[in-house]
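Project standup — Tuesday

K.O.: blocked on the structure for the chain from last sprint. Re-posting the sequence here as requested.
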Amino acid sequence: MSAPLRLVLFDVDGTLVDSQGSIVAAMTASFDALSLPVPEREAILSIVGLSLPNAMARLVPECTDADQRRLVEGYKQAYHAQRLEQGAASSPLYPGARDTIEALHAVPEILLGVATGKSQRGLDALIEAHGLERYFVTRQVADHHPSKPHPSMIDTARGETGVGVANTVMVGDTRFDMDMARAAGVPSVGVTWGYHDRLALDGATCVIETFDQLQGTLDAIWT
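H.V.: unblocked you, prediction finished:
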């Protein structure tokens, strides 16, 4: 009897790649362009994972909707310019990320996917820059879904792959990822090397501190 299909969904920023330098720089450029005070670094990193409109609404609720939209567009332009200039170096993979992706991909019954607050353009460029095109069979982005923690990304990924709730795991570094997994009814793995502290991951099924712990943790969840 063959093993059931499994699906591992990864968040991107703060989970697969360390993009905090690029995120803070792009946010700084966006606020500077409108002559607005730049939020603290901790505040900026606290909203990573949300779609940009939701993130901006949380960062500067006092700004008008029009200014929030300008900030979103300014951020997109600044981030895109950085990516063109720096390539993969603007968002390096965390230690162990590539090895773990390759090891999981080599298991016939495991499918890999992405559920991210990034745009389609941003995700595709990142995946291409790191040469990861062949690994992810489903890619869910902010362009096509409500912001995390709405379960739409996970539900759609499951629909595309035909994998059941119990055989799907969300891997992420923020409370938004854990809350999205809970809303979708799937197990979750929180990672401690990202942008939210360990206390924010209290809703996770399991928490890991290094990528090499992931495969064993998944085995434990699925046994």
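K.O.: great, moving the ticket to review. The mean pLDDT is 94. The first strand starts at residue 6 and ends at 10.
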